[in-house]
Amino acid sequence: MVTKKKSKIPCLSLSSFLPALEAVTAAVTMPGGGAPPPGTPSSKPKEKQKSKVVVALYPFKAIESGDLSLEKGAEYEVVDDSQEHWWKVKDENGSVGYIPSNYVKEKETIGLQKYEWYVGEMSRQHAESLLKQEDKEGCFVVRNSSTKGMYTLSLYTKVIHPQTKHYHIKQKDTGEYYLSDKHCCASIPELINYHKHNSGGLCSRLKTTPCDRPPATAGLSHDKWEIDPNDLVLHEELGAGQFGVVRRGKLYGTRDAAVKMMKEGTMSEDDFIEEAKVMTKLQHDNLVQLYGVCSKRRPIYIVTEYMCNGSLFNYLRRTSPDQLGPAVLLDMCLQVCKGMAYLERHNYIHRDLAARNCLVGEANVVKVADFGLARYVLDDQYTSSGGTKFPIKWAPPEVLNYTRFSSKSDVWAFGVLMWEVFTCGKVPYGRMKNNDVVEMVQRGQVLERPKGCLIEIYNVMRACWRQSPDERPSFRALKEELSAMLRD
């Protein structure tokens, strides 16, 4: 019997076997040294994601721990931008804190925004008001033109009589920019610099720009809404209304503010204080900014942004339509509409939109005020549609009949506000009694067209006054329509 000799086979460990297997797999799947098939893990280390860098457009002074001061023109690395209005950033020294997001712009997309003369989407009417207020020869701004991708230079002169001239910045096929064919430059900043030294066909040399006014921040800090009364200095009375006296104030010794001193028993205070925490986070160029509340003692103070020209209603009453002109009036309506479109997007209902509840600042800037406040009023005469204080003349059928508020009831009120603007502050329905107004609205009758108001603008008002809420336009659609009208 012959016994076969067993051959000795070396025992391979898994670790020594895997490289050979990977080599065979690579040879089979990648003939000729081609790329690995989709899904094959790469042996290359992953590239580190590029951090977002922003540039400060305005200076910001941090007043609370956890926030970070900004230096205009300095760069900051974004650490956390998950909040809409307050971002956490790191400065060049490694300090980390929160900053208002509307004070910075991403470095890669900053473009012209780093220049103090660039005002972006500012309308022609707002530019004229701003330059007229500055009242300096050669004062100018550059803004986006109504033609997308183009720019307009708005220049103030007093040579013959005070006026603003508007020049389109043109571009040649070669890419050069010019205001006059004879003077071309490679970029808009170079063109502006040239005309600072040479009028070059313009009515005046470019001399100065309006004062740089930073926008309002969304509250005082990333998480602050309670204000210590000791940080407030109260000045003169600005007016009195449903909720109490309003006085001008100084916050932290530097910031102008309006202080609403709430009459005790007029509102559901605890509910409002909870809501105030949310309301301080609402931020838009056409909303009066809520800075916070003083709730630790009575009466409660509501502290907001200060608007130097008071209510839109009073502003219109002391100004004739000829002084402002239809374009400025339409621009005022558009500004209110922009603020309301923001509230609509955030599912926020105003409930008491009217010219008396909008405020006017410098250069005809209009902002919506007191949004959402009506919910917390305890006065039945104010909250019930049968009450004498209820704003019946601004209310649609569904509010009069069922007290059913929505963004579409705000749209109805906006139509009445437009009517107020184009009549320069007349009272809707004149001296008609509330009962007669209710009957008129329920019959489908609406306010007449204001004298001198274009039929296209009046048709927008009528669209706001459609009986069915679903048939009324949204604020977003109204904003687009009014913007197009203003451009035309």
From TrEMBL:
SMART domains from the UniProt entry: SH2 (SM00252), SH3 (SM00326), TyrKc (SM00219)
Reaction catalysed by this enzyme: L-tyrosyl-[protein] + ATP = O-phospho-L-tyrosyl-[protein] + ADP + H(+)
PROSITE patterns given in the database record: PROTEIN_KINASE_ATP, PROTEIN_KINASE_DOM, PROTEIN_KINASE_TYR, SH2, SH3
Region (Disordered): 29-48
Domain Protein kinase: 232-486
EC number: 2.7.10.2
Pfam families xref list: PK_Tyr_Ser-Thr, SH2, SH3_1
Top-level EC class as recorded in UniProt: transferase
InterPro entries: Non-receptor_tyrosine_kinases, Prot_kinase_dom, Protein_kinase_ATP_BS, Ser-Thr/Tyr_kinase_cat_dom, SH2, SH3_domain, Tyr_kinase_AS, Tyr_kinase_cat_dom
Signal peptide: 1-26
Domain SH3 positions: 49-109
GO molecular function, one term: ATP binding
Domain SH2: 117-210
Binding residue positions for ATP: K260
Single GO biological process annotation from the record: morphogenesis of an epithelium
Keywords: ATP-binding, Kinase, Nucleotide-binding, Phosphoprotein, SH2 domain, SH3 domain, Signal, Transferase, Tyrosine-protein kinase
Family from the record: Belongs to the protein kinase superfamily. Tyr protein kinase family.
Protein name: Tyrosine-protein kinase
Species of provenance: Parnassius apollo (Apollo butterfly)
